[in-house]
Design brief:
The chain has one domain. It has 2 helices and no strands. The radius of gyration is 24 Å and the shape is elongated.
């Protein structure tokens, strides 16, 4: 998963550099260039945040699922013993 995240981050960074270089080569003025680069930066930041949030959510949920399954198994054995 880390390789996938790293690859995606590299792709986003390459895209931002490409956008900046293309805008400069086309001779566009600063306002349009800044807007294009800013949009790419925002997109990259949102993507990075979403990936980090997803990883943290999965990591936090995994131990809780295990505990729920363990408690269910313990409760079933207690019910069988009481019955």
């Amino acid at each position: 998963m880390n390789k996938l995240i790293s690859r995606r981050d590299n792709t986003s960074l390459q895209g931002m550099v490409t956008t900046a270089v293309t805008a400069k080569e086309a001779g566009e003025e600063g306002d349009v260039t800044m807007r294009a680069v800013l949009l790419r930066l925002i997109d990259a930041a949102v993507s990075a945040f979403n990936l980090a949030f997803l990883a943290a959510t999965k990591a936090a949920a995994a131990p809780q699922r295990h505990l729920l399954l363990t408690r269910k198994c313990q409760n079933k054995s207690l019910i069988v013993l009481q019955g």
